[in-house]
Write a structure and sequence with these properties.
The chain has a single domain, classed as 3-Layer(aba) Sandwich (Rossmann fold), CATH 3.40.50.510. It contains 5 helices and 4 strands, in the order E-H-E-H-E-H-E-H-H. The protein has helices at residues 12-24, 42-52, 72-83, 98-107, 113-126; strands at residues 2-9, 31-36, 61-66, 90-94. Helix 1 (12-24) links the parallel strand 1 and strand 2 (31-36). Helix 1 crosses helix 4 and helix 4 packs antiparallel against helix 5 (113-126).
Length: 142
């Protein structure tokens, strides 16, 4: 199985997990998440990551998404994944957002992981846009 694992500072990862459940279907066992809570030490968070990925086997793949490249959640999760001997079957991406994670969840089983990542990053960048609504009312109509 390919797992999408979400890690973050605060409640971003669990919140994103919740949104993915709404959009991609609830009860999915292929989406896992955990977060570094305010005041939590690295060893406590590492234990949360171990628990989060406990069902992942040596035959599985992990798409690991973190909120910040180089942030404690992503680097700690990477260390735990390496300890478990899963790093060779893991792709890590920082700067996660809902369009990126949703595309990963929906497309991960239809394509090779390398091709998926090559598609995901440009697609996620394209989703960041200014949202504008034109005001068609003239000042005389107000």
């Amino acid at each position: 199985m390919k797992y999408v694992v979400l890690v973050s500072h605060g409640t971003m990862a669990p919140g994103l997990h919740n949104a993915l459940s709404m959009l991609a279907g609830g009860g999915r066992e292929d989406i896992l998440s955990t977060s570094l809570e305010n005041g939590m030490g690295a060893s406590d968070f590492a234990e949360k990551v171990r628990s989060c990925i406990s069902k992942v086997t040596q035959e599985d793949e992990i798409l690991l998404f973190g909120d910040l490249v180089g942030g404690s959640p992503l680097t700690t999760a990477a260390n735990v994944i390496a300890e478990q001997g899963l790093m060779g079957r893991t792709v890590m991406l920082g700067g996660m957002n809902l369009p990126l994670a949703l595309s990963a969840v929906l497309m991960k089983d239809t394509m090779d992981t390398k091709d998926l990542v090559e598609m995901l990053i440009p697609e996620a960048r394209e989703e960041l846009k200014t949202f504008q609504i034109e005001n068609n009312e003239s000042e005389d109509e107000i």
